[in-house]
Structure to design on (184 residues):
């Protein structure tokens, strides 16, 4: 298996993108966004995930993060994706979702080519990790993360998007704590 775009070290931070299969807009629903927030909080408390920046968009998540205390980020991401896949499917089954049949069918069909037995596939393979080596790269990626909702015309100001660390950096309420970096 290729280690390009994999977070295999324990002492470096990474810019990560995790994307749903077919870029399906799973996270247009508040309950699905909170599935992600809750899973990230769990990883922070129990799996050594240190988050510096994030944004939950409709079909993908962007993170600036690293594994600490001996935890390897690739293991954290594997567990995160496995848990959230199950939680996303369970939420689609249990709670109101007008796209239920279509989404479940798509997630089922995404498994047909897999060698191992699996009923649903929610996430694309991998998580495209890029190692962070310079302050310029940190600033560039943090701006990219925070400007996602502005670029998509969801909000006008980065700090107005609730599911982004831009709120943390602006000193506003947010459900997910991050480690603030001095970006200036």
């Amino acid at each position: 298996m290729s280690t390009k775009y994999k977070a295999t070290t324990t002492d470096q931070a990474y810019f990560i993108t995790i994307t749903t299969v077919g870029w399906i807009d799973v996270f247009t629903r508040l309950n699905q966004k909170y599935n992600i927030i809750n899973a990230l909080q769990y990883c922070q408390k129990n799996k050594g995930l240190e988050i510096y920046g994030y944004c939950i968009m409709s079909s993908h998540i962007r993170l600036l993060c690293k594994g600490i205390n001996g935890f390897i980020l690739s293991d954290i991401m594997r567990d995160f994706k496995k848990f959230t896949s199950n939680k996303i499917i369970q939420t689609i089954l249990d709670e109101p979702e007008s796209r239920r049949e279509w989404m479940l069918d798509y997630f089922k069909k995404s498994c047909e080519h897999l060698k191992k037995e699996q009923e649903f596939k929610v996430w694309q393979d991998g998580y495209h990790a890029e190692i962070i080596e310079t302050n310029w790269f940190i600033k560039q990626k943090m701006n990219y993360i925070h400007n996602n909702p502005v670029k998509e015309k969801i909000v006008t100001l980065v700090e107005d998007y609730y599911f982004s660390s831009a709120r943390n950096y602006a000193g506003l309420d947010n459900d997910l704590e991050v480690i603030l970096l001095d970006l200036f």
Remarks:
- The helical segments are 30-46, 73-94, 100-109, 135-151, 166-169.
- The longest strand covers residues 49-56.
